[in-house]
Design a protein that fits this description.
heterodimer, A: 467 residues, B: 368 residues, alpha+beta, 2 domains, 7-stranded mixed β-sheet, 3-stranded antiparallel β-sheet, 14 strands, 17% strand
């Protein structure tokens, strides 16, 4: 089930809220666990078994870690957990990719498994691993209650698209958390904002990207291709950050506070900064569980460069079992190394617009690699960006640009902190009544428009399912 | 206090929606969309595991949502405010015209269709039966000034030029229609032309045959409905769309009309039952039938090979011929050559609107 569906908004959410707030404190995690399983089963009934297996596996590993702490077998639980989780992830996500690669390299005819990818597997395997690692390192206490642990693993707000919540960040909240109108109201506001980003911005601007990406490269114009990749950048940002907003908002309603996942990435002045603002929970995960254990930046420049290379190869590969994602990871790995070596210093001296333009340009080129599974098509599209295609511009391009101009302007504004800052200023100057009316107006507007689009539109694909 | 109010507001939004959904009875048919609505899907293990249940329930909720038509209207308004120039294959043109989109034509299909009509024309020439080809430009061509800026639009005049170049005897009506483009030639909410549009083209065709057409003032005009909203309206669901008027033009209102080899015989080319239904343009000649014969008081026998544009065109012809035959190649399965011979046809008219002619795969059967 996805949040941006009528099923979630008008069936699942009312039901889970009613039951959750009706039952006593001790039963709340059970309610969350059960409803999360239903949420997951909605799309993939068979894979609920996988979710329960994952829960039991890591619960047991946590106990093993605790049991053998200080003995020779102290790493047993850790190793089982890492192998188990990576094994699951590898089996479901990468087997067919490997089969394809082996077939093309060796000329064999192994048949692919063609299993559907369990929804959110890239997210929850990372979360469950973080539990065992945190317990092993002593960053968190072992969870004795399997239901509470199950609630963590399957927690529906962030189950299928993150943010990737490290166990240590919510260990405390799992056992004891408070619920208040402040949290609930704030969460609701955040949820509706995310819903609007996804349904109103990402889905609609995505229509233009579909039109452009489905056009043969030879028929595209240079201006059309630039507009296209810009539009894709907006689509993926509002899709993913909208989903994170909804997850964080729902978490707040149920008394959790998840870490932020996005912080206006498109205003960055360098790629290094971009990655501190984009999908922050994934960056944090790789930093805490791979980069730093490998030695981070403490073992000299060569080791640090190696560590960056490893992390970015994995980051690319995590995003999808396809060579274009690997290339995309390598692309960013190289850029980050170059920035680390000298470019950051240069950029600091240059006027700020240079940093903005450079970053945006590089990020857009990165999205070309990301957007096309088929490398040939990606390269053809790149060619059009730099002068190939049917010409510089044509009436078709003008028509599309004109049709989407108001939406594009809204996207530009919404991807900067402009409105947030304005809101902050209002908060200082205006009274409570004004702020309340502004909040109510915002919720009603976004809600009614989003629901209207969901009811009338069949176009509601969700991009981050594949990862 | 502030967040308490927001919390209550949010709960109201989801709970009221859910409660209304549960309490209100489901509907079976949507007048607005002219289709049956999704009913509550049965829950079974096979539907759940095949994931169809997930899609079915979402579709059910969307179709049965309280005040669905209002929600759809809200979306249409939002889309137009956000700068969208089209929706569902229809341009939002000036003056409230909703014009069907044709960005380009399939060149191969077009040439194939022209060749087919040319073959028929050659055969008719051998038999001494006169044949004319009448490609009618649609609103997308005649009213192209009303289209949104830069809107991609297939060149309909190139089709006429190509047909002439391939040796077809074309009745070119572009000048006539251009001259009257400020008149009510096309419906605002439907892809068809009005009876008035058809009149001007009919007059042009008559003159091409060397006959004198009756003047506009000589016809009795009867308004069949002034609450017509047609196909392009149904595609965009624009709540602010205008209502069109359907007029009938006749001299005598009764004719013997036989549909589909006489399986249905009636006394008027107007089928009033359509005026209450979803397809109001169908009032002309009972919507689209495979073959139709209308008896008149004139001389000669006319055969129109046609699409639905001919349905309102025919009202001007029926008195001038002894018989007016209409064949819709999309539904007619017999041989056209045999039909022409058996019925003693003296005049053949191939009448299509241009986008339909360019795309229709049935046209090539006209030489069978």
């Amino acid at each position: 089930m996805v949040f941006s569906s009528l099923t979630f908004l008008f069936l699942f959410l009312p039901a889970v809220l009613l039951v959750y707030f009706a039952v006593p404190r001790q039963a709340k995690n059970t309610v969350l666990f059960l409803f999360s399983l239903i949420f997951y089963a909605w799309g993939e009934p068979v894979y609920v078994g996988l979710m329960i297996f994952s829960t039991i596996l890591d619960y047991t590993c946590g106990r093993l870690v605790e049991k053998y702490r200080g003995t020779k077998k102290k790493k047993l639980g850790l190793i089982i957990s890492i192998c188990g989780n990576l094994g699951l992830l590898f089996f479901f996500k990468y087997t067919d990719f490997m089969v394809g690669t082996v077939n093309s390299l060796l000329g064999t005819t192994l048949s692919p498994l063609e299993l559907p990818l369990p929804i959110g597997i890239s997210f929850y395997t990372f979360q469950t691993m973080s539990y065992t690692i945190d317990v092993y390192r002593g960053d968190a206490k072992m969870q004795r209650n399997i239901i509470s642990f199950g609630a963590y693993v399957s927690l529906f707000p962030q189950l299928i698209a993150g943010p990737i919540v490290r166990y240590r960040d919510i260990a405390q909240q799992l056992n004891q958390r408070t619920h208040s109108y402040d949290q609930f109201g704030e969460g609701a506001k955040r949820f509706v904002t995310g819903l609007g980003k996804k349904v109103l911005l990402a889905n609609n601007i995505g229509l233009l990207w579909s039109t452009i990406s489905e056009t043969e490269a030879a028929q595209l114009t240079t201006v059309g291709a630039w507009v296209g990749i810009l539009v894709f950048a907006f689509q993926i940002y509002f899709d993913f950050s909208g989903y994170s907003d909804m997850a964080i908002g729902l978490g707040r309603m149920f008394g959790f506070s998840f870490l932020e996942n996005f912080n206006y990435p498109y205003i960055s002045k360098s790629v290094t900064e971009f990655w501190r603002r984009w999908h922050m929970s994934l960056g944090t995960w790789f930093r805490d569980y791979i980069y730093i254990p490998l030695g981070g930046n403490r073992k000299g420049l060569p080791i640090q460069l190696r560590n960056i290379a490893v992390v970015w190869l994995l980051t690319g590969f995590w995003h999808g079992a396809s060579w274009n994602f690997v290339l995309w990871g390598v692309f960013y790995g190289i850029l980050l190394v170059v920035e680390k070596l000298f470019l950051l210093k240069w950029l600091k001296k240059a006027p700020t617009f240079v940093g903005h333009v450079y970053t945006m340009l590089v990020v857009l080129l990165g999205w070309v690699l990301f957007a096309f599974d088929d490398l040939g098509k990606g390269l053809a599209f790149l060619g059009v960006l730099f002068g190939g295609g049917v010409g510089f511009t044509n009436t078709w391009t003008h028509y599309q640009l004109l049709s989407y101009l108001p939406l594009l302007v809204i996207c530009v504004v919404a991807s900067t902190p402009l409105m947030k800052n304005l809101y902050g200023k209002l908060q200082e100057k205006c009274g409570q009544t004004f702020l309340l009316s502004a909040d109510i107006a915002r919720i009603l507007l976004l809600w009614f428009l989003s629901v209207a689009y969901l009811i009338s539109g069949s176009y509601n694909p969700f991009l981050y399912f594949r990862f | 206090m502030r967040y308490k109010i927001l919390s209550v507001l949010f709960c109201l939004l989801i709970m009221v929606g859910a409660a209304l959904h549960l309490l209100l009875p489901d509907k079976y048919f949507s007048q607005q969309e002219k289709r049956t609505l999704k009913q509550f899907p049965g829950l079974s293990w096979s539907s759940v595991s095949a994931k169809s249940f997930e899609d079915d329930i979402e579709e059910y909720l969307a179709d049965q949502f309280p005040l669905r038509d209002c929600w759809v209207a809200v979306k249409t308004i939002a889309e137009r405010l956000s700068g969208k120039q089209e929706s569902g294959g229809v341009y939002f043109a000036d003056d409230g015209y909703l014009i069907e989109i044709h960005r380009s034509f399939d060149e191969a299909q077009l040439r194939q269709n022209i060749d087919a009509v040319k073959r028929l024309q050659d055969l008719m020439d051998e038999q001494g039966v006169s044949l004319r080809f009448l490609p009618v430009p649609t609103a997308g061509d005649i009213l192209r000034e009303k289209l949104p800026a830069f809107a991609p639009n297939a060149n309909q005049r190139a089709v006429i030029a190509l047909a002439k170049q391939q040796g077809l005897r074309v009745v070119d009506v572009t000048e006539t229609l251009d001259a009257h483009k400020d008149a009510y030639l096309f419906y605002k909410t439907d892809h068809h032309w009005t009876s008035l549009g058809a009149y001007y083209v009919w007059a042009e065709w008559m003159e091409d045959m060397g006959r004198t057409p009756a003047l506009l003032a000589e016809w009795t005009v009867e308004t069949l409905t002034d609450r017509f909203r047609g196909t392009t309206y149904a595609k965009v669901n624009d709540p602010f769309a205008a209502f069109d008027t359907i007029d009938a033009y006749y001299k005598t209102k009764t004719h013997r009309v036989a549909y589909n080899s006489g399986s249905y015989v009636t006394d008027s080319i107007y089928e009033d039952k359509f005026l209450d239904g979803a397809d109001q343009y169908g009032v002309f000649l009972n919507s689209n039938q495979a073959d139709t014969v209308v008896s008149g008081s004139g001389t000669g026998r006319l055969l129109i090979l046609k699409d639905s544009y001919a349905n309102c065109f025919a009202q001007f012809c029926v008195d001038d011929f002894q018989q007016t035959h209409l064949i819709d190649l999309r539904f007619f399965r017999g041989s056209i050559l045999d039909y022409i011979a058996e019925n003693g046809i003296t005049e053949v008219l191939v009448l299509y609107n241009i986008p339909n002619f360019a795309q229709d795969t049935a046209v090539s059967r006209c030489g069978n």
